[in-house]
Automatic annotation (TrEMBL):
Name of this protein: Nicotinate-nucleotide--dimethylbenzimidazole phosphoribosyltransferase
Pathway(s): Nucleoside biosynthesis; alpha-ribazole biosynthesis; alpha-ribazole from 5,6-dimethylbenzimidazole: step 1/2
InterPro entries in the cross-refs: Nict_dMeBzImd_PRibTrfase, Nict_dMeBzImd_PRibTrfase_bact, Nict_dMeBzImd_PRibTrfase_N, Nict_dMeBzImd_PRibTrfase_sf
Key words, A-Z: Cobalamin biosynthesis, Glycosyltransferase, Transferase
Function (record text): Catalyzes the synthesis of alpha-ribazole-5'-phosphate from nicotinate mononucleotide (NAMN) and 5,6-dimethylbenzimidazole (DMB).
Gene label: cobT
Keyword Electron transport: no
Active site: 326
Taxonomic path: Bacteria, Bacillati, Actinomycetota, Actinomycetes, Micromonosporales
Keyword Repeat appears in the UniProt entry: no
GO molecular function, one term: nicotinate-nucleotide-dimethylbenzimidazole phosphoribosyltransferase activity
Biological process (GO), any one: cobalamin biosynthetic process
Known EC number: 2.4.2.21
Length: 358
């Protein structure tokens, strides 16, 4: 599945992008007056292979959840049980991601790809046909401690990536016009920093942030943990499955799969914060053309996110100092993406409106 998905990912359609640029130049507005929305609309036309591209709706948020063996190194003060407890909160509709999803009219799917503690809910539970749903796809109960050994075997990393690919396919088959990345996993900014340092070639200190807001001592320990893991494994960025296995998380691997699955289906994927962009680096290592399907929703407060976006050549749509995860920043950026496409559908040209050009 992984190989066939990667093989299906191709470059953006140049003819559709030329048509979109031409249309932007004929709309009743000064050229370039919509700033970043104009090149975004062009890129989405190239992804879809048509001008205008389909409106990116309905939207589907996929929250991948997993736990981490590196939690034992004291990289966060939060207990690991919170991962499972937050899944219960997602399904009950009480998290920030639920509030933003309701506002945006987006569906929420929660995927247990590697939670270590028993879930407080049954996969059949949810809030009804239109409410959050839980997908049981646990590869293993949390990763191993990456400072002691590889976090995952290659087979486990592949299983997580292919879980993400399957979820992407199911959501697109159900009608989703855009996928949004979400994540939940106590301690998951530590493997995210390791992935960013490995793929983007930045120093662990530049890739590591304070996550949930750790104190100075915990932050220094976190940087040391990331450095120690990278020194131990020396992951090869040209072997993305190997990097994910060595220092990644199950939710990171699954998110990489979601991105690849979206790119293969020519559907845009709106990236959330540092967990998503660390996964996006892995997806780009598998298939460089997958970057064409990626839209950076926001600039996370985590420094590694900026380093990753710079490496990918993506500019975030909004910058609000967010560091929650869950998919919250992507949901706030969703109207911007929709607006960029709606302009191509609904704004009159100078000729059709009878408006004189300069």
């Amino acid at each position: 599945m992984l190989e066939s998905t990667v093989a299906a990912i191709g470059p953006l359609d140049e003819a559709a992008m030329v048509a979109a640029r031409d249309l932007q130049g004929r709309l009743t507005k000064p050229a370039g007056s919509l700033g970043a929305l104009e090149p975004l609309s062009v890129r989405l036309a190239g992804l879809a292979g048509s001008c205008p591209p389909p409106l990116p709706e309905p939207a589907a948020v996929a929250i991948f959840a997993g736990d981490h063996g590196v939690h034992a190194q004291g990289v966060t003060p939060w207990p690991q049980e919170v991962t499972a407890q937050m899944i219960g909160n997602f399904l009950a509709g009480g998290a920030v991601v639920n509030a933003f999803a309701r506002q945006a009219g987006a569906s929420v799917t929660v995927v247990d790809v590697g939670v270590a503690t028993p879930l407080p809910v049954d996969p059949a539970e949810g809030t009804g046909p239109a409410g959050p749903r839980l997908v049981a796809a646990n590869v293993r109960p949390g990763t191993r401690d990456m400072t002691v050994g590889a976090a995952l075997t290659r087979d486990e990393a592949r299983a997580a990536v292919e879980t993400g690919i399957r979820v992407a396919g199911e959501l697109v088959d159900a009608g989703a016009g855009i996928l949004l990345t979400g994540d939940m996993g106590i301690g998951n900014t530590t493997p995210a920093a390791a992935l960013i340092a490995a793929f983007a070639g930045v120093d662990p200190a530049a890739a590591t942030g304070r996550g949930t807001g750790v104190d100075d001592e915990t932050y220094r320990r976190k940087v040391d943990v990331v450095r120690a893991a990278l020194d131990r494994h020396a992951p090869d960025p040209t072997d993305p499955l190997g990097v994910l296995a060595a220092v990644g998380g199950l939710e990171h691997a699954a998110l990489a799969g979601l991105i690849l699955g979206a790119a293969a289906r020519r559907v845009p994927v709106l990236l959330d914060g540092v967990i998503a962009v660390s996964a996006a680096l892995a997806a780009a290592a598998f298939a460089p053309d997958a970057v064409g399907a990626m839209v950076a929703g926001h600039r996370s407060a985590e420094p590694g996110a900026t380093a990753a976006l710079r490496y990918l050549g993506l500019d975030p749509l909004i910058d609000l100092g967010l560091r929650l995860g869950e998919g919250t920043g992507a949901l706030l950026a969703l109207p911007v993406v929709t607006g960029a496409v709606r302009v191509l559908h609904e704004v009159a040209t100078f000729d059709s409106a009878g408006v004189a050009e300069k």
